[in-house]
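Students often ask what a holo structure prediction actually looks like on paper. The answer is less mysterious than it sounds. You provide the chain, you provide the ligand, and the output is a string of discrete structure tokens encoding the 3D arrangement of the protein together with arginine.
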Amino acid sequence: MSLLAEIKQRFAAVIEPLVDDAVPLLEMIRPSGDPKFGDYQANLAMPLKAVLGKNPREIAADIVAQLAIDDLCEPPEVAGPGFINLRIKDSVLVARLEAARRDQRLAIPRVEAPRTFVVDYSAPNVAKPMHVGHIRSTVIGDALVRTLRFLGHSVQGDNHIGDWGTQFGMILYGYKHFLDQPAFAASPVAELARLYRVVSGMVSHVKLKQTLPQLREKVQRQEVLVSDLPADPPPNDKKAAKALAKAQRQLQELEKELREAEQAIEGAESDREFAARLAAHADVARAVLAETSMLHAGDQVNLSLWKQFLPACLEDIDRVYRRIGVTFDHTLGESFYHDRLAGVVDDLLAKGIAQESDGAVCVFFDDGDVPMIVRKQDGAYLYATTDLATIQYRMETWRPAAILYVVDHRQSLHFTHLFETARRWGYDDVELQHVKFGTVLGEDGRPFKTRSGDTVGLEGLLDEAIDKALAVVSANDEAKPTGPELSIDERRQIADVVGIAALKYADLSHNRESDYVFSFEKMVAMQGNTATYMQYAYARVRAIFRKGDVDVEQLRGGDAAVALGAAAERALALRLLQFGEALDSVAADYRPNHLTNYLFELAEAFSTFYNECPVLKAESPAQRESRLLLADLTGRTIQQGLQLLGIEVVEQM
Ligand code: ARG
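The corresponding structure tokens follow.
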């Protein structure tokens, strides 16, 4: 058990008799931010004031008097208004390091009650190029799978690819009308992607054009609204002035939107080829939907084309997964559930969970939200229907305790409705979690795009990250006091690892719910909370062992002991022992950034130790061995931690 969990248990024995729910109070026991206040701090005396009607210092003193913790900590101190400060005994730190050093798992225990998780992640829509948004789902999902599994849970990682959606209608239509046969023979996926762009461009154009009259009307209405407001409100009437400014601003925005739409339409139509194509395919929007419906209805031609396209599409995404080292236990895409959809809708109707409304079948919610449609008027099934069938399948197949959906926060409403419907349908004892994440932004604060305006292709991104990493690795090598140590080839191999690591780590180190600004420079930086910094810390540990010609196996298995003399040694030891706490935090709210934060703190503690405590030139052989053990544990913890994030280390940098 981690130190924190152990401390909480001791406090629980004292607190539980006092309150109905001790959990929130126990949550207030935390590692302290400053060693002045001990290693851990319990701030629960203050909120207990309301319950016990005593002053918090007294409460704290009472708790301390009852606490059975002297095997673990020095005598606790009550400080300030009623903080309880705890300092772990050095002998406990040493004993725990001793256990970690001899254990493959660094003495991280497996959970006592393993659960079965399904993790739904990555899930790109195939036949469309993958983009930077997909990397977040892939990387966060992969880290969760690895961490939960390491903790002893049973995990099914499932890539719920979009292989059955309307994009296939576009591709089928494109294939039938605009195929460049030699291009298809040479590179099927590239040609399919082109066809997708051609047709989706036409469809968006048609749709945009259809919205023009509405947009014009909106502008006119807003003009009237503005002209109805007093044009020169008296200076003391702030409200009127504000209202006018607001209405004018809205008008400007609408006008801008209209202008941009008109320009886009004009621009496209001035392209002769595009205009001619459009004229010949005026019905494209409807036709594309019809292609999708025919595919779903089992049309021979469309189905066999789809079967022909799919392997190439899958190979295309697999290439990316291979490059970033991500694998899945299952890839059960939307098409896999097709045969279940009719049954799902029938069952929802029969159980009164869904109702017919205007020919469509819908699930309604009390809060006045829009209903969730599970079958359209024309008989088509939707994303939501497939997701319901997927829950049914997963529950039948794996009986999970939890299903985690690592998906963009923009799909929040979909998942709220989906989970509510699933509960009504009887799946009420499974934890359904939308593990949502924010948007990746460019340096301009808008969703990340390349100069050409396309959302950046994932592979271009990987290439660029590796290029940037190569520059950093080379510069670092050139700057070594004794001259460069790496060949060009070695630098390249290192850059491959460092570049991918940087990309993943940048994603994982941000609280997943916030948007973050994508910056190659920052992500490969040698300083700061980056993979590069962590890999460098690891390489430094390895360098000590190379330089000292130390046999690690012998060291680990030997009987040299860890001694905690200097403050930096003790601080490093404590950090090392908090690895399990970081993993528990990741598992508690499905946020890998708890682990990156921890690793960063560990690397910093190591850096201080490295600067203040000579290892190879220690004062005595015993001190040397002790410090080597601390360094080795640091290296192993960084390596294990990064591995749980799907990130590799390099021996040299
Ligand atoms: N293919 C979807 C998209 O890219 C994500 C699917 C997420 N998983 C799910 N079960 N809905 O938007």
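The pocket of arginine is lined by residues 120, 123-125, 160, 162, 387, 390, 405, 407 (CB under 6 Å).
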